[in-house]
């Protein structure tokens, strides 16, 4: 047995963590035999659950045939097949696909594709990517630029140019008299104001998560938001990039998060659920109108050694088959409602949990010291870290973050694999109840018994 006793590995998170031993379905086990229920699907990526036989066998078969062939030299069948499969599931016309190895890489590729499209179409002054605060688009230098998270971006700012940001539509925090739909328009109109402020000719694209993920814990914009955003982008000739890294491949009860509305992005970014954690994989999809000029210019000036990796793409093909075979998108929609109802019941017991929201199995909530005033716990309390740890001790994995940018708060997400059953949701909720009981004791928060 090998542990990192020498501390050779370095990480974002605090070590030590237990060494994982095995996993199956919605569970993982560590080396000591302790079992964890995966209420965060890893990094909200293991959509089809752990240990799926069909995917493992498909990857093995591909490895036996060919594990690697460079895309400069060869096409490979899994990449071609996955591109076909994706095109048939994405909004009509989004049928030009480009594969990479992860979410940040896919965001980088989307930004570079947009920029090259602008140059290829004689719009070389366009380069700014407007993002939102808070938001998360990845951790590489380019993906950080439109990411709204000061803590992650500040250190790198001399190298990674911060892009213009508009507030994310955090409607749950608003206290004004406007209806939800009016507030949706209000937040969308901030995009137009920002474009005009920056100078429309300098703006290349607007990037957003259709339903917020890591930074905003399942933030769902009002319906009015999407058509207005599309209208504004069209009026100023700006590309709309949907970062569906977390929301894609069924997570929210539709294939894409954006499919809950009829809005149409210019570029879709996918990763996480696409391979469900079985192999590193990401993708961008765009229409011929975007890709055509770039190809005509001599080709996309981009490429990674592992782009279109045959084993990763074989995993992707098998994952999509399993999503269909097991009816996981419908299950996400149904179980998501069960989960939200259960969380609502928990919040009656623990009134410091509020603003429960989300779609499908991307479900989130806020934690407030004073829910009436929406007053957060103090930042120094690092309550999000404590919540994760208290759950982990009890064998439950959840996702929790301190929201930065605008009014602060701690939030958490419960995002189990899309195979989750009612009984497993019951187990998650029971353990979460125990966790919140301990959390309330530690932070001196009221509980209704
Ligand atoms: N975009 C979004 C919306 C994400 O949620 C993430 C990952 N949390 C990324 C990009 C970056 O993906 P990766 O961690 O695979 O680089």
From TrEMBL:
The keyword Transferase applies. It comes from Mesorhizobium marinum. It comes from the Bacteria. Gene3D superfamilies: Aspartate Aminotransferase, domain 1 (3.90.1150.10), Type I PLP-dependent aspartate aminotransferase-like (Major domain) (3.40.640.10). GO terms for molecular function: transaminase activity. Keywords: Aminotransferase, Pyridoxal phosphate, Transferase. Belongs to the class-III pyridoxal-phosphate-dependent aminotransferase family. This is Aspartate aminotransferase family protein. InterPro entries: Aminotrans_3, Aminotrans_3_PPA_site, PyrdxlP-dep_Trfase, PyrdxlP-dep_Trfase_major, PyrdxlP-dep_Trfase_small. Its cofactor is pyridoxal 5'-phosphate.
């Amino acid at each position: 047995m090998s542990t990192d006793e020498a501390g050779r590995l370095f990480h974002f998170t605090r070590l030590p963590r237990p060494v994982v031993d095995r996993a199956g379905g919605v569970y993982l086990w560590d080396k000591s035999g302790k079992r964890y229920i995966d209420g965060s699907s890893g990094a909200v990526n293991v959509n089809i659950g752990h240990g799926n036989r069909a995917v493992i066998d498909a990857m093995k078969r591909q490895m036996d045939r060919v594990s690697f062939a460079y895309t400069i030299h060869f096409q490979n069948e899994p990449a071609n097949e996955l591109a076909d499969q994706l095109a048939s599931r994405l909004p009509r016309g989004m049928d030009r696909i480009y594969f990479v190895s992860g979410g940040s890489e896919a965001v980088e590729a989307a930004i570079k594709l947009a920029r090259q499209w602008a140059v290829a179409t004689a719009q070389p002054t366009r380069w700014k990517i407007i993002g939102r605060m808070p938001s998360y688009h990845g951790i590489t230098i380019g993906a950080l630029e439109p990411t709204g998270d000061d803590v992650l971006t500040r250190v790198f700012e001399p190298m990674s140019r911060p892009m213009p940001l508009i507030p994310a539509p955090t409607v749950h925090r608003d206290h004004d008299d406007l209806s939800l739909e009016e507030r949706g328009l209000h937040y969308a109109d901030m995009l137009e104001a920002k474009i005009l402020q920056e100078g429309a000719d300098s703006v290349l694209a607007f990037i957003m998560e259709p339903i917020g993920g890591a930074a905003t814990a399942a933030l769902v914009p009002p319906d009015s938001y999407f058509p207005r955003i599309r209208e504004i982008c069209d009026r100023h000739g700006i590309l709309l990039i949907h970062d569906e890294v977390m929301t894609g491949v069924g997570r929210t009860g539709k294939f894409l998060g954006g499919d809950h509305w009829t809005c149409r992005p210019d570029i879709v970014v996918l990763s996480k659920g696409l391979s469900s954690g079985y192999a590193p994989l990401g993708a961008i999809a765009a229409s011929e109108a975007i890709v055509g000029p770039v190809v005509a210019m001599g080709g996309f000036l981009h490429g990674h050694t592992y782009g279109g990796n045959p084993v990763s793409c074989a995993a992707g093909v098998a994952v999509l088959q399993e999503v269909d075979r097991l009816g996981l998108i419908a299950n996400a929609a149904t179980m998501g409602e069960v989960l939200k109802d259960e969380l609502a019941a928990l919040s009656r017991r623990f009134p410091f949990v509020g603003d429960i929201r989300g779609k499908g199995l991307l479900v989130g909530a806020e934690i407030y010291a004073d829910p009436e005033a929406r007053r957060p716990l103090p930042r120094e309390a690092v309550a999000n870290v404590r919540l994760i740890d208290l759950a982990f001790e009890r064998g439950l994995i959840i996702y929790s973050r301190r929201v930065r940018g605008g009014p602060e708060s701690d939030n958490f997400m419960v995002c189990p694999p899309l195979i989750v059953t009612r009984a497993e949701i019951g187990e998650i909720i029971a353990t979460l109840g125990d966790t919140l009981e301990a959390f309330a004791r530690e932070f001196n928060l009221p509980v209704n018994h």
